[in-house]
Amino acid sequence: MDKDTLVSLVKFKRWMDGETLKAIKAIDESAHPQKRHLMIRLMNHIYVVDMIFRANLTGQQHGYTALNTPETPTLEELEVKMADCAAWYIQHVDALISSDLEKVITFRFVDGGHGEMRAIDMLNHVLFHGTYHRGAVGWMISECGGVAPKDVLTVFLRDHNH
């Protein structure tokens, strides 16, 4: 995969994460408290995994002991955190050269197990992991009478990738 495509995919992730958070905001919290809370937890899980892999990509310690945080952030806090994290990924990927993507990185999984992945595989994990969980959140948004965002790359490329 070329770097420009990868940057576009990370921009797509940033856009779709934001659209999903906006759709969650529109859900009536008093009518659907458990599902709305679960949606926020799933989006926070995406953020935590993004941050874990950010640390892995840079050889730093992430400090997480689980794949979610004990506390649930507000949607407003999560919007800021996810946007900042996505901005980091965009800048990071844009600064890479082709050989950086093939670099094998060793790390520790949250459960303590040994991990070893190429940078491109880590980036692909971040992209696909978020898509998987946003799909579940979109389903719950619909179940609560909301309008799930169109989580499709073609819409992003047509309307938002300028």
UniProtKB/TrEMBL annotation:
State the superkingdom. Bacteria
InterPro entries linked to this entry: DinB, DinB/YfiT-like
Record's keyword terms, sorted: Metal-binding
Gene3D superfamilies the record matches: dinb family like domain (1.20.120.450)
**Nucleotide-binding among the record's keywords?**
no
Q: Its family?
A: Belongs to the DinB family.
Q: What name is this protein filed under? A: Diguanylate cyclase
